[in-house]
Amino acid sequence: MADSLPNINFGFDDLRDRMAKFTVRFDQFIAEGRKRVLEERNQFRSHVAELAEDKKMKQRSIDILEQKSHSHAQTIAKEAAETEDMHAAIASISSQRDQRAAQRNRLKDEIAATQKAIAQRLEAQRKHAAEMDVQAKLNNPELDFWVDYLCLRIEGTRADHLKFVFTHLDERNWDQEFWFEMSMAKADYEVVEYRPVLDKERIDVRLERFNESRDVGAFLKDMRELFVESIK
After folding, report:
1. Average pLDDT over residues 121-145
2. Packed helices 216-231 and 12-149: angle between N→C axes, nearest 10 degrees
């Protein structure tokens, strides 16, 4: 009976062989996949580490550039301040130079004016001296008369000043001195001091008359009369 049954070949052996080969290929695929995933993961990690390092280097470069930029900005600000100070110093020096130039010009003008005034004064003094010489020649005889006969003494006290001293005016004391000091520094003479005290207004009247006439004798006579009146 068994021999009459058909010989059916289900191919289990071939299927088993094929399954075994598939399993080997599948395990190989899984292993390769795991290996590839591991390699990609390692490569990704390495790439991430490289990116992190690159980022760190770039950040360091940025920090360096920012530091250089800040230092450069400080340098520019410092140079700008120094430039401004230099301009201010130049302006100050220029102002001082202008002021000194103006002062020098003023001094030149003042020196020229002073020299002119000195020349004018010297000329006036020369004229005055010439007039004095002429007047002295006219007055000397009369002065000699007053000195010799009327007890007058003439003293030089300082430059351009003469002191006229009278005695024998007071009967109670012939030696008592009555004097006045005259300044001849200016064109118009001045009585600057006198003893004893006299009325200044009366002196000024006689002095004005003397400056107009230049009559020394008359003026001495007037002053002597004032001293005599002061005794009474």
Report:
1. 61
2. 80
